[in-house]
């Protein structure tokens, strides 16, 4: 169990990159979702003991990892957003190097991990010739070397082609059966089929943490479908939050986020997870505007 208690990270005098975050995270895949600059990477760096919170506690199985960072580092696998490789090393040599750093002395584990990320046929090739997706896969292999209890990956599918993205999501989902996997992304499709919980960040605050089904359930009755004439579209768009617009011969079919039917002919639509999160974001923005 990972627990955060009133975690704050302040830069300078007044900039709160992470603002009073408290949450408990059991094993499973947790999708950390938010816009760029929401505080996702800062939060993950503190959990990974790369930086320290300004205040608050981070506990792993009741051990304060701010005071005892080695308690986390011995059980952590980490893949940062900007993961570099040593270009003159082969994939095998790269893994052997990191295995030595982590105290892993099982050559068979290195071979198994290279097979797991589909790099076994490239084990003796220099990383300088690897594509972005291959380097990303090598990064996840090194993160798994010490069989971590906590795996943190920041924007994991950056640079991956569609087939690699699918394979990567399946891999993280399988790991999440037994361990805590934290995946930071602003692309909802990366996590919608594998996350057991979603943690939503906005301006440094954790504004919601729940299951994907719960977010979709709350959005029911707030997403509508309606077809309008092209000349009416701009007027309507200025009045409501349009989630999607599809042009066709009969006009423009819209999916709209609104607490009540935006037009008399609008019908309820089953929200996708992405639409559910967008609906929550719009509601949060309206509450913040009203408070201001």
From TrEMBL:
It holds the Pfam family ABC_tran. SUPFAM superfamilies: P-loop containing nucleoside triphosphate hydrolases (SSF52540). Keywords: ATP-binding, Cell membrane, Membrane, Nucleotide-binding, Transport. CDD domains: ABC_drug_resistance_like. PROSITE patterns: ABC_TRANSPORTER_1, ABC_TRANSPORTER_2. Residues 2-228 form the ABC transporter domain. GO terms for molecular function: ATP binding; ATP hydrolysis activity. InterPro entries: AAA+_ATPase (IPR003593), ABC_transporter-like_ATP-bd (IPR003439), ABC_transporter-like_CS (IPR017871), P-loop_NTPase (IPR027417). Belongs to the ABC transporter superfamily. This is ATP-binding cassette domain-containing protein. The lineage of its organism: Bacteria, Pseudomonadati, Pseudomonadota, Betaproteobacteria, Burkholderiales.
């Amino acid at each position: 169990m990972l627990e955060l208690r009133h975690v704050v990270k302040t830069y300078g005098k007044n900039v709160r990159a992470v603002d009073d975050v408290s949450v408990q995270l059991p094993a499973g895949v947790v999708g950390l979702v938010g816009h760029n600059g929401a505080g996702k990477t800062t939060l993950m760096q503190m959990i990974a003991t790369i930086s320290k919170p300004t205040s608050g506690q981070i506990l792993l199985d009741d051990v304060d990892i701010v005071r005892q960072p080695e308690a986390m580092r011995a059980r952590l696998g980490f893949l940062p957003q900007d993961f570099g490789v040593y270009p003159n090393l082969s994939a095998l040599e790269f893994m052997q190097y990191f295995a030595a750093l982590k105290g892993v002395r099982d050559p068979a584990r290195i071979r198994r991990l290279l097979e797991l990320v589909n790099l076994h046929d490239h084990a003796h090739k220099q990383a300088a010739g690897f594509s972005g997706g291959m380097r990303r896969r090598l990064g996840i292999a090194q993160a798994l070397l010490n069989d971590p209890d906590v795996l943190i990956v920041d924007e994991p599918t950056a640079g991956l082609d569609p087939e690699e993205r699918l394979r990567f999501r399946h891999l993280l989902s399988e790991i999440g059966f037994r361990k805590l996997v934290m995946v930071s992304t602003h692309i909802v499709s990366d996590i919608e089929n594998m996350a057991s919980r979603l943690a939503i960040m906005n301006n440094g605050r954790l504004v919601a943490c729940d299951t994907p089904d719960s977010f979709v359930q709350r959005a029911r009755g707030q997403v509508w479908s309606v077809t309008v004439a092209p000349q009416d579209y701009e007027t309507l768009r200025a009045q409501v939050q349009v989630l999607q617009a599809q042009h066709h011969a009969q006009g423009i079919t819209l999916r709209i986020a609104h607490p009540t039917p935006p037009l008399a002919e609008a019908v309820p639509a089953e929200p996708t997870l992405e639409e559910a999160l967008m609906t929550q974001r719009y509601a949060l923005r309206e509450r913040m505007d009203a408070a201001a």
